[in-house]
Amino acid sequence: MRALIAAIGILLGWEAFVRWSEVPPFLLPSPIRVGNVLWTRWDILIGHAGTTLTEILLGMVFGSLLGASTALLLTAWRGGRRWLLPLLIASQAIPVFAIAPLLTLWMGFGLASKIAMATIIIFFPVATAFYDGLRRTEPGWLDLATTMGASRTAILWRVRVPAALPGLASGLRVAAAVAPIGAVVGEWVGASSGLGYVMLQANGRSQTDVMFAALAILASMAMVLWFVTDLLLRRMLPWQPDALSEDTSR
Amino acid sequence: MAPDLGLILPVVQLGGRPVLGACELRFGAGQVTALLGPSGVGKSTLLRLLAGLMPLPAGARILPGDGGTLAGRIAWMGQQDLLMPWLDLRGNVALGARLRGQKPDLARAHALIQSVGLAGREKARPAELSGGMRQRAALARTLMEDRPFVLMDEPFSAVDAPTRHRLQGLASGLLAGRTVLLVTHDPLEALRMAHRVLVLRPGPNGAVAADLALPASPPLRAATDPAVLTAQAALLDMLADAA
């Protein structure tokens, strides 16, 4: 509720600023103008939004699966730690933006290169958050499981993994927040549809209001994605202590 | 009744420092042996050696009285309740079987939950239980393992005094017949629950254990028993000397 009031306040301030300062619309369009574009070009924009959303969601699925399995592999396989961990860190030294043109070259202008971008950008936060959780199992639980005669595999699946799920959840929340970046950067480098493509086209024609409209849709999508992810994770991990839940629910 | 448990140790070193002196100990069959001593003297080390949580040093031998091995025959109860927050009470009590890939005996789990006074809370997650209830759940989980040897590392140190008093009575009854090694910091707990009290004192070649003379009455002893109170004073003196 408060967030809604704050958003309306910002929009009103923005409108007032545009009217008062008479800034030209190609530099900063008024919110009413942007709203008008959203209304009249909704059918076109929604199609592009669908493309971007598909890229984001598929990227999240692949990136999360890849990240989580890497974390499991690093935990379960000692040799893997020695070989994979440096590789994992090194992979993050290369900016994703720098390899976007390569991915487009290799995988074409279609969905594949954007999904690959989103996957790469999601992979690291998921892998590191889950791996951290898997490493930091309460030592007492491990002692208890050992005295109960549990095998290494049983300890991994029945103790380490459930104990690390809150860590994985943090990784997935970050993933939900950064996934749109991967998709949009991919679209900027080369695409024939998607919100990033719309923004690039509109920019070239000084249709700043269209850019803002695409941006508004992208931002709403990213927020909805984050809240849905957060809600699902809370539902799935009801035991997770949340000392701040009283504050955030209001 | 559970067999007795013998332990022959050479000097046990941790990080190049002697912790436990060479010793030969025997814990009585079906009895509770309490182990006291200042912090860092090696009580937990002794317990962890027996529990198989630390590799045995060369020359060390663990000798259950029936000639078998200790592997798979101990139950462990730690300082914290160590309940898994994602499992409900019943899942926690039946944890051992699940970890070994066996089908848990749910009727037995139910009976044990009842005997620790938690009937009706089977579906509760640990976060919904009080500290005392959680410790009782941990006790039920320990008994669920149904092992002849029970190793307890300050099992009731995290709960308040009246709860601890009640838990001692409950545990004493439920552990009857098992060979128990109870590490504790609480002299009264040792004197109420134990058939034998050992005090570990640090020495130049590692800590050595000394026996404390106990009241003639068997456990569970009343905290108001004058003989218990006299023994408590003697034990406090012994601990003060050891520290």
UniProtKB/TrEMBL annotation, chain A:
What is this entry's stated membrane topology?
A: Multi-pass membrane protein
Family annotation (Pfam families): BPD_transp_1
Top-rank taxon of the source lineage equals Bacteria
Q: Which CDD domains match?
A: TM_PBP2
- Does the entry feature the keyword Repressor, yes or no? no
| PROSITE patterns reported for this sequence | ABC_TM1 (PS50928)
Subcellular location field? Cell membrane
Q: Which UniProt keywords apply?
A: Cell membrane, Membrane, Transmembrane, Transmembrane helix, Transport
ABC transmembrane type-1 domain spans which residues? Answer: 49-233
- Asked if the Swiss-Prot or TrEMBL record annotates the protein with the keyword Chaperone, the reply is no
- Provide the leader sequence positions: none
Principal localization? Answer: membrane
Q: Which InterPro entries does the UniProt record give? A: MetI-like, MetI-like_sf
Similarity comment text for this entry: Belongs to the binding-protein-dependent transport system permease family.
What name does this protein carry? ABC transporter permease
Give the originating organism.
Answer: Teichococcus aerophilus
Its taxonomic placement starts with:
Bacteria, Pseudomonadati, Pseudomonadota, Alphaproteobacteria, Acetobacterales
TrEMBL record, chain B:
- Return the Pfam families for the record: ABC_tran
* All residue ranges annotated as the ABC transporter domain in the record: 5-227
Keyword ATP-binding appears in the UniProt entry: yes
Mention one GO molecular function.
ATP binding
> Which keywords accompany this UniProt record?
ATP-binding, Nucleotide-binding, Transport
Supply the InterPro entries for this chain.
AAA+_ATPase, ABC_transporter-like_ATP-bd, ABC_transporter-like_CS, ABC_transporter_ATP-bind, P-loop_NTPase
Protein name in UniProt: ABC transporter ATP-binding protein
